[in-house]
Amino acid sequence: MTFPDLFDEFRTAVLPGGASDPTLSNLESVARYTSAREGDAPFNGIGVDQIVFIAGGSTKLVAHVSQGREQVVAFHFRGDLVSVPASAAHAYTLCALEDCELVFFPADDFLQIAQQEPHLVITILERTLRSLARSREKSVALGRKTAEERLASFLVTMAERIGWSRDGAVELDLIMSRRDIGDSLGLTIETVSRQLSELRNACLIETSGRSRFRLLDLPSLHRRAGHLELAG
Amino acid sequence: MTFPDLFDEFRTAVLPGGASDPTLSNLESVARYTSAREGDAPFNGIGVDQIVFIAGGSTKLVAHVSQGREQVVAFHFRGDLVSVPASAAHAYTLCALEDCELVFFPADDFLQIAQQEPHLVITILERTLRSLARSREKSVALGRKTAEERLASFLVTMAERIGWSRDGAVELDLIMSRRDIGDSLGLTIETVSRQLSELRNACLIETSGRSRFRLLDLPSLHRRAGHLELAG
DNA sequence: CGTCACCTTGACGAGTCTCAAGTTGTGTGG
DNA sequence: CCACACAACTTGAGACTCGTCAAGGTGACG
């Protein structure tokens, strides 16, 4: 994909309502793009907060606690917008789960330009609020849930984001490794594996290969996730 | 405090640059206010997402997992802005830690009006990004840190938000109970208590009464928190 | 000054981690 | 297309952190 194509991808996904020409050309002038191979961390040591649009592929945002200890703070898929901080109490790295096409902006420049276009800021704000809501849900899972609840919660949440229906079940492709899942749920790969086996034995899920999952009983999974019972 | 005073409080805190008169009067017309007593949960069952400004006092945002299990997702102090979701995978409650003065808006109306004032949206966005950053840091703590690290992390973070310097140490008043701290850190009150005793024995903190803390050695606390060493 | 909720401390047990061994899937080269 | 090699995953046994239960302390009120 060429740069203009990628910027277009960003424009139509983030600005479906359109924007004024000068704003667009300003944005395009500060936009950069990169394609990342699986495992790449294109923003390591870049020094400024970035706003990154996932034009293709999928990524994880990882916090490094100490050698060997990592926490996956979020996963992202095509069409998502990520705020990648330069620094905080911990170092963060955006890392490609598969080959990716990324459009990115220095956050400062982006917000500066966005001031001209309330529409755009509102869209970003709405997406940021959704990220915040997901991050809070993650805190709940990490702080107060058992391994089984975390796994069930993870599966139904991912199903909502990237799953599809087939034969009355929901299927999804979990491209991330067991280690990534563990690092996202605050568990070890062994515990992840054991809990998946539990769910398989309970006939709540089927797996084929390493990444293909079939969720056979969403209501039960929601219950095991400790989620609110939805009326109706 | 009267309503106009409270709205003024909001205006000067959130809109230091000012805003156009029509926007302000529109905002004022959808703004509501309430004073909450300690322990009150003024937004329970209100049914719509709210944007809440803490004009006075302090609050916690709590997710209810199951009877007896709660997760405090964030604490808020005077001048903070909170997004209170109506519903998600879990029920959330904003709860007063002490007597509070709150200004609040239905999120939809607020964003609708804010479209007229890019300045305002940018401010809200910046605050939301800070909330997101804090929420991510909390995920890191909950997912990959020991009890001791969580406590140290909590203390230095709170010190940055509400602490003051005195005699070469940082003091702060932790108005929330040990239970609140535990529910925030994914620990029990007993573990919180034990870890505080550890930190006392290590001469890293002093406490007087239930809520007054003195942090005697910030660098060591940062180290125990597993935080990044800051150059310089 | 007394009362009560809140906090502290101790002993024990459950859930998850660690370490280790075996199995399965995936990708590569013949 | 098959066989091989390696990484990823699964499963098991024992250790450790933190939770649970229980019994005192302590500080903040009236």
Structure report:
Two copies of one chain form a homodimer. Chain A has 232 residues and is an alpha+beta fold. Chain A folds into two domains: 3-142, Sandwich (Jelly Rolls), CATH 2.60.120.10; 145-224, Winged helix-like DNA-binding domain superfamily/Winged helix DNA-binding domain (Arc Repressor Mutant, subunit A). The first copy, chain A, has eight helices and eleven strands. Chain A has helices at 3-14, 21-30, 107-114, 118-144, 147-162, 178-185, 189-201, 218-224, and strands at residues 32-36, 50-56, 58-66, 69-77, 81-84, 91-96, 100-106, 164-166, 169-173, 205-208, 212-215. A four-stranded antiparallel beta sheet of chain A has the order 1-7-2-5. A four-stranded antiparallel beta sheet of chain A has the order 8-9-11-10. In chain A, strand 10 and strand 11 form a beta hairpin. The N and C termini of chain A lie far apart (45 Å). The model of chain A has no long low-confidence stretch (mean pLDDT 94). Chains A and B meet through strand 3, strand 4, helix 4 and helix 6 of A and strand 3, strand 4, helix 4 and helix 6 of B. The structure holds a DNA duplex (30 and 30 nucleotides).
